Amino acid sequence: MSALPNWPLQRSRRAASGAQAGHRRPAGDLRPASAGAAGRTESGDTATFTLVDWDTFGQVMVAVLAVGAALLQFRRTRGGPRAQIRQDIELLELLPQGPSRDRMVAHVESSVDKLIERETELRRDPMGIGLGIAFIAGAVVAGYFATDAPNFMWAMVLALLAFVFGLIGLVGFIQDVVPRKRDEKGRPIE
């Protein structure tokens, strides 16, 4: 059996069951109690080591999704740019003639111009968004397999692959999800 690296790992529940059955080992020792040919502990459980505690990961993902849903709902209830322009027009009707009314008229006109530009000229690139999501999904899969890799070398190769895929996917997704002026092929003009 190859030696494990000297950095913190979490033992899975199956590997920890041997320690719960009365096998005493020093704190921090992550090696299986018995390094038999099949990688079994003295109690017969398979010793596995993971880099991720999936229960905690699941709880964190639920929290992230809840916060994202709350932010999305907050953004929807604000009404967007059209509601803001309506409120500005209502405020404009209440203002007396003078320099502040003239500035408010200029502000409303520039807001309408920006809204028209955003809706007619700025667009996203759906192909790039799909590729970004595919690369991020590939990074997740490579990261998952890195946690269950048979040895340290494979874990590092898969972790590096996951990092590269994740970086490419994130950069591509962010570049293509932002509305911009684009040419016929979807490439940003500016």
What does this structure look like?
- With 190 residues, this protein is mostly helical.
- It has helices spanning 13-20, 54-78, 80-94, 99-120, 126-147, 152-177, and strands spanning 10-11, 49-50, 122-123, 180-181.
- The protein folds into three domains: 1-50, no CATH class; 54-120; 122-190.
- The strands form two sheets. It has a two-stranded antiparallel sheet. A two-stranded antiparallel sheet has the order 3-4.
- The longest helix is centred in the last third of the chain and has 26 residues, at 152-177.
- The radius of gyration is 28 Å and the shape is elongated.
The strands making up the biggest β-sheet line up spatially as: 1-2
Count of DSSP E strands? 4
Mean pLDDT: 75
Helical segment tally?
6
Number of individual domains: 3
Fraction of residues in H or I helices: 55-70%
In angstroms, what is the radius of gyration?
Answer: 28 Å
Uncertain regions: pLDDT < 50 for 5+ in a row?
6-21, 32-40
Main pleated sheet: 2 strands, antiparallel
